[in-house]
């Protein structure tokens, strides 16, 4: 199925269309200095394809939230959610094919990068049955895929760059078509920009950006000066979804606008009004004010600084109540777990502990073990010390799948299938599950048996436990 999005008109007044079906396979890069009309072009593309394909917009400035009024996009105010909640929302959007705008304008740049990375990873790691076609539009892409380290935290930069690379390099097979816009090609990571096959180049003035844009458009370097002469809203387009030769595109009008006001000239106030405001210095009636109290002595200030008023302690909890409340928080996290990294989950865990009046809060190392027990469904049970000692031979991330297998083996229940182990392991790859099981077997902690009907059972020889076989065909 082919669908053309009307971008505007060519130099000769002929309509220029973008082939949406081709775009889903080839991706798009938009470049232009501030004020060249990039956001207007993206809005034209989004309005023209709304209702035809799912749209997801990463919006660092809050420019595209107005799409919700005209086209029903869900606006996600990232400042109102934790990273774990953003990942859950991303997975639901992928599942239900809802068009959405992730508004990041209430966050600092480091937090914008972390939030965008978590959201993009949730889209990317969705189960195969949710790989529906979707346009993923990233405005100001140089913020999320910088060409060099800047003043942002190194972990935020690496996480964001990895998510953008996955979107542009590997997203096509998952139905994700990246559309990225940047002010400067020189600031955008090359391995992200290089994956685009369609280009719309707007006005730019720096020589390094003009030459790079000319190279992408297949123009000779002496023709690069033409990019400097483009007007606002004019772009040179090239690519299988646009044209086989560079074509000048004058972007058409849009239905929606931005909430951010454009700078306009306003008349200054009249000279008389200014004089009246600035030169009227009639003294105000004097009020009798009581003299201020004498300043405190230095010794009193020092004592006040050294001994601030104490913060009242939280109500003390007995050990049983504390354990019960921690277990409830862990169970809630396990019920909504969709592969979020441990630090993001721990942040939600600490918030839940503070809200429940739990002090002190278990450290991250204890949280990993407790959360693995909750995922395996054995939180709060006795008699697992020997199993945990056996699990010490495995990497930390394999603890939860191993305990889930051990639970089934101890109860004689059917062995967990690959889909369930993948969910507990925090991956969508069945290949990673098979490698995980192979590693466990190489370490000697499990023995895998497959019967003639294709059912799989797993034994723990150190403990003398063996699970029942899975249903035929469900192991893989």
UniProtKB/TrEMBL annotation:
SUPFAM superfamilies from the xrefs? P-loop containing nucleoside triphosphate hydrolases (SSF52540)
Q: Where are the transmembrane segments?
A: none
Q: Where is the Helicase HerA central domain?
A: 11-70
In terms of InterPro entries, this protein maps to:
ATPase_Atu1862_pred (IPR014588), HerA-like (IPR008571), HerA_central (IPR002789), P-loop_NTPase (IPR027417)
The source's superkingdom equals Bacteria
The UniProt entry, under PANTHER family, shows: HELICASE MJ1565-RELATED
Identification of the protein by name: Helicase HerA central domain-containing protein
Q: What organism does the UniProt record list as the source?
A: Sphingomonas changbaiensis NBRC 104936
Question: Taxonomic classification, please?
Answer: Bacteria, Pseudomonadati, Pseudomonadota, Alphaproteobacteria, Sphingomonadales
């Amino acid at each position: 199925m082919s669908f053309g999005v009307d971008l505007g008109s060519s130099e000769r007044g002929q309509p220029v269309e973008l082939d949406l079906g081709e775009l889903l396979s080839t991706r798009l890069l938009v470049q232009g200095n501030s004020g060249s009309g990039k956001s207007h072009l993206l809005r034209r593309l989004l309005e023209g394809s709304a209702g035809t394909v799912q749209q997801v917009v990463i919006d660092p400035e809050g420019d595209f939230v107005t799409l919700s009024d005209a086209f029903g996009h869900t606006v996600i105010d990232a400042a109102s959610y934790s990273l774990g909640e953003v990942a859950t929302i991303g997975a639901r959007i992928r599942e239900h094919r809802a068009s959405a705008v992730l508004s990041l304008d209430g966050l600092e740049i480091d937090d914008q990068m972390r939030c965008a990375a978590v959201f993009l990873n949730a889209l990317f790691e969705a189960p195969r049955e949710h790989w529906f076609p979707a346009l993923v539009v990233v405005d100001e892409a140089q913020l999320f895929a910088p060409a060099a380290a800047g003043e942002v935290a190194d972990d935020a930069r690496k996480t964001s760059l990895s998510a953008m690379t996955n979107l542009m390099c590997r997203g096509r097979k998952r139905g994700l078509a990246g559309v990225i816009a940047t002010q400067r090609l020189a600031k955008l990571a090359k391995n992200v920009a290089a994956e685009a096959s369609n280009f719309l180049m707007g006005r730019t003035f720096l020589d390094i950006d003009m030459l790079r844009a000319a190279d992408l458009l297949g123009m000779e370097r002496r023709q690069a000066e033409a990019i400097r002469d483009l007007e606002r809203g004019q772009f040179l387009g090239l690519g299988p979804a646009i044209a086989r030769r560079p074509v000048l595109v004058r972007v058409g009008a849009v239905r929606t606008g931005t909430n951010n006001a454009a700078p306009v000239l306003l008349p200054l106030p009249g000279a008389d009004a200014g004089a009246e405001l600035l030169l009227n210095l009639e003294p105000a009636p004097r009020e009798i004010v009581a003299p201020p109290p004498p300043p405190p002595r230095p010794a009193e200030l020092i004592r006040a600084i050294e001994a601030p008023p104490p913060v009242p302690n939280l109500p003390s909890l007995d050990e049983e109540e504390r354990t019960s409340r921690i277990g409830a928080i862990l169970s809630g996290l396990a019920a909504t777990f969709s592969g979020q990294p441990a630090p993001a989950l721990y942040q939600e865990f600490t918030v839940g502990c503070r809200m429940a009046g739990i002090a002190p809060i278990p450290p991250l190392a204890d949280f990993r073990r407790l959360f693995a027990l909750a995922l395996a469904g054995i939180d709060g049970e006795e008699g697992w010390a020997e199993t945990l000692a056996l699990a010490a031979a495995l990497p930390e991330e394999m603890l939860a799948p191993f305990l889930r297998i051990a639970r089934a083996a101890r109860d004689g229940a059917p062995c967990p299938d690959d889909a369930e182990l993948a969910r507990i392991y925090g991956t969508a790859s069945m290949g990673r599950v098979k490698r995980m099981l192979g590693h466990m077997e190489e370490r000697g902690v499990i023995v895998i048996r497959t019967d003639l009907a294709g059912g799989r059972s797993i034994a723990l020889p150190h403990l003398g436990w063996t699970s029942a076989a899975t249903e035929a065909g469900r192991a893989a």
